[in-house]
Amino acid sequence: MPPIEAPPPYLRIQGDDLYLRVHVQPGAKADAISGCHGDALKIRLRARPVDGAANTALSAFLCATLRLKGSQITLVQGESARDKVLRIRAAPAGVQTQLRKYANPLTHLLSTGTTDEHHHTTPDP
After folding, report:
1. pLDDT tens digits along 68-83
2. Distances in Å between the alpha carbon of 45 and those of 7, 31, 72, 110?
3. Which of 59, 69, 103, 112 is the most exposed place for a label (fewest CB within 10 A)?
4. Closest by alpha carbon to 76, among 12, 8, 33, 9?
5. Which of 34, 31, 20 is nearest to 95 (CA)?
């Protein structure tokens, strides 16, 4: 039986829920997950940090990227900061697997066949 792999530092598992620590870079050229930033997952967003636009864009981007419903993602810490913690409720097993791949750039490279960041276009508001 293979050993259970510890989650990356940006991911905490609590029952069926996941807590995701992210570092957001607003005002980027494209929405993308760009690897790790310390103990957080770095996410670049086109949205500016004005009137909650970046938080809304973050939720929409993660929903589209991870194929989740909007009601599954809740911002639990960092409403007006770049460092945030999000709760993903009742996360399917595939979500945890998908989030783990960003912890190791080589794993991400092998799974995508490219050194590019994970880009996902979300509709402009």
Report:
1. 999 999 999 999 999 9
2. 24, 4, 20, 24
3. 69
4. 12
5. 20
In this structure, the strands spanning 118-119 and 40-44 are: unpaired
Which is higher by pLDDT, 24 or 2?
24
Amino acid, single-letter form, for residue 67:
R
Could you tell me how far CA 43 lies from the centroid of its own chain? 6
Helices vs. strands in the chain: H and E counts, helices first: 3, 7
DSSP bridge pairs for 86: 20, 75
**Strands annotated E in the chain:** 11-14, 17-25, 32-37, 40-44, 73-77, 83-88, 118-119
Which has the closest alpha carbon to 100: 10, 2, 4?
10
Distance of CA 27 to the CA centre of its chain: 17
